[in-house]
Amino acid sequence: MRHDFIDRYSRLASPIHSIPPSVKLVGALIILLLVVTMPISVPFLHGSLALALLVIAALSRIPPGFLVKRLVYLEPFAIGAALLTLFQTNGLALFAALVLKSTLCLLTMILLANVTPFADILDVLKRWHFPALLVTTLALMYRYLFLLIDQAERMSRARVSRTFVSGRRRSWHLLGTMVGQLGVRSTERAERIYAAMRARGWR
Amino acid sequence: MHIPDGFLDGRTAAVSAALSITALGVALNHAKRSMPPQRIPLLGLTASFIFAAQMLNFPVAGGTSGHLIGAVLAAILLGPGGAVIAVTAVLIVQALLFADGGVLALGANVFNMAVTGSVGGYALYRLIGRIAPGPRGRLVAAGFSSWLMTVVMSVLCAGELAWSGTSPWTVTFPAMANVHMLIGLGEGTITMLAVAAVARVRPDLLDDRSGRPAQSYGPLLAYGGIIVLGMVFFVSPFASPWPDGLERVATSLGFEEKALSPPVIQSPIADYRIPGLGSSVAATGLAGAVGALLVFVLSFFLAHLLVRDHRQGSPT
Amino acid sequence: MRQALEVKDLHYRYHDGKEALRGVTFSVPEGECLGVIGPNGAGKSTILLHLNGLLPETFNQPPSVFVMAQPVTADTVYAIHRKVGLLFQDPDDQLFCPTVFEDVAFGPRQYGLSEADVRTRVEESLHRVGLDGFGKRSPHHLSGGEKQRVCLAGVLACRPDILVLDEPTSDLDPRGKRELKSLLRSLTATKVIASHDLELVLELCSRTIVLDEGVIVADGPTVEILANEPLMLAHGLEKPHSLLHLHPHGAQRGDL
To answer: Chain A partners of C90 at a C-beta cutoff of 8 Å?
Structure first.
């Protein structure tokens, strides 16, 4: 499963991984807030945050190549959105500041996702009294996410292998049908999951 | 249209978060009171489905690709309350695990997509479905409302960015709205095709899920109020789409030039002037109106293609 | 000997009106392992769902299913859930929690055990299925065989009296099948196994019923039934390979 990169490093043994998940979550939020609210005019502030993140990255034993790859993949979206700032006075400076800030935020979240298993984050949310239905939905969503992505990929491959005639109309039709089928399959699986939950005593 | 971190100021993030939390509270409350337990796993599974569906790209003009948002599709399958919860779950997981959309921007993203996109789309879908009943009408409703909500969500996005001072309205509105009028075509088409596919295999999944009318008016009114508030905050400060037009009218009628509600940031580059059309903002508004009409007509054609006359034999 | 399970004239209709079960009657004494075989669509899974009271539409009729002499009705269904552990065909339907520990803990937690007791049960059950230390793993990283075993652990953690398994080896590779077989052999609970894997049924089940189009067409000792080639072929099955060569001379003479 290619997409399980999300979980691959979240259970390593490192000083960062052993920090309690609630501390990591709150820490990440604080870093985000600091990055976003502090003025860029004093480079020391953002510079030290960047340094802190790099130190955390190094201590976390996550392969740096992986972190770089994730960052490189996500960066274009931030840059693309930031282009909107160019069309005003001081546009270039604003653009640069925005790109810097969003890069730091991206790095923070990439690190958080890879030093904390999502199941632990869910535990923290439960302890913080997030509504039960929302937490259950998040848990089920996470559990079946990769299964659904796999199904979507398999359907995609089947669609490609059956597209003998490259017709745009045909491929749109197949795309829509795939989405519909995915929807039906997930609904039917939800029904079976409900039966399995009841079988083990759920009310 | 997931807004990353750093693009919104504190005020916008806080206001949108407050609106979103309220809407989520309404949805959760309503679900707790009236959703049968066998549908609880459906929320989580539909959330994974929406996420997986969002990964399927489709080509848009000129080498760019768009992807499905799925808020309206979620609402068609789950009803408004369920969709609010499911799409919020998608956005939370995307922000926390995939760094897709900012964590601090969750308030805005949830408000745009999970609340306005889903509930607004649902209301529009039901409305059109009443005007154009039957399987074809349902497809037209699905297609048109997903197109329109894509544009509406992008306009909200534009407003939030402008309110935050990240970029002036005169830039964000045309940029977001025009691009999403195109992307919305993909969303509308896929939603229509998906609903048609579901209707062929499990038509029972498309039944009205909002519960008995008496039960659902309360939450719908609440959502409506929240959405309107959001529009007031994020769009109406800029919503005079034809400011020069109004000014011209005002002077020609002899009224004093009144400063309309001042834009949040002074753009030294005023609206781009497009000869014959006035400002780019006005041009976008016009394009939107024309586009809406076109899309409505197009969806009728597509619906006809998808639901062949039964007398002619088996459907596609 | 007490009857662990009794099914008396069970009828069931699908939502679309098609009759799935048309008067099914059989019983399972305590400690026995019963095999349920038949072609696809015969109704095997439907019967199994009835054994755990998972089809509430049938509660209106006079009860046709009895678990440990208790009828399965709307009032008793929660007690029935505790007595009967059902292993579904697709482990992904049953493994719905974010970690292995949480999933195995699901049943015990539903029954209100203390966290300490829950932890003990989980560790015990994981140990029984040979998955010690798997607690923190995520389900989507497990192999088919491991998933199947976690599901079994989750069911065992509820300490049921009766185990009902729907196609337990369908997703497994040969090694997974061998491991599951030896595991099931070591469990002394009453068992009902529906399977296409006739070798499995031959090895584990002393008695077998054949289901076709909603009725039981044969009920008897496993070897007798599975060796009856005309019967097997008539109902979309076949004589398992190990019986073909069991007594080469005997098979030619038509007796076993």
So the answer is: 192
Chain A neighbours among C 112-141 (CB < 8 Å)? 136, 138-141
Residue tagged 């998972």 (tokens): C54
- Give the nearest chain A residue to B164 (CA atoms): A85
Cα C123 to chain centroid distance, Å, stands at 23
Average pLDDT on B197-219 reads 74
> What is the pLDDT, as a whole number, of residue C201?
93
- Assign domain B10-312 to its CATH architecture: Orthogonal Bundle (1.10)
A69–chain C nearest CA distance, Å: 22
Chain A, window 97-136: residues with a beta carbon less than 8 angstroms from a chain B beta carbon: 98, 101-102, 105-106, 109-110, 112-113, 118, 121, 131, 133-134, 136
- Name which of C99, C102, C110 is nearest A200 (Cβ-Cβ): C110
pLDDT digit string, tens, across residues A141-183 = 999 998 998 888 888 787 777 666 556 666 777 888 889 999 9
Strands B65-67 and C3-13: unpaired
- The helix (H) or strand (E) run that includes residue C172 is none
Q: List, as ranges, residues 61-100 from B with C-beta within 8 Å of A.
A: 68, 73, 77, 85-86, 88-90, 92-93, 95-100
Q: Backbone phi, then psi, for B144, in 5-degree steps? A: -65, -45
Extended beta strands in chain C, E state: 3-13, 19-29, 33-37, 65-67, 70-71, 84-87, 162-166, 190-194, 207-212, 215-221
Domain residue ranges in chain B: 10-312
Q: How many CB pairs under 8 A join A and C?
A: 76
Domains within chain C, CATH numbers bracketed: 3-96+160-253 (3.40.50.300)
CB B171 within 8 A of CB A89: no
> What is the tens place of the pLDDT at every residue in B2-43?
999 999 988 999 999 999 999 999 999 999 888 888 899 999
Look up the ipTM and state it. 0.93
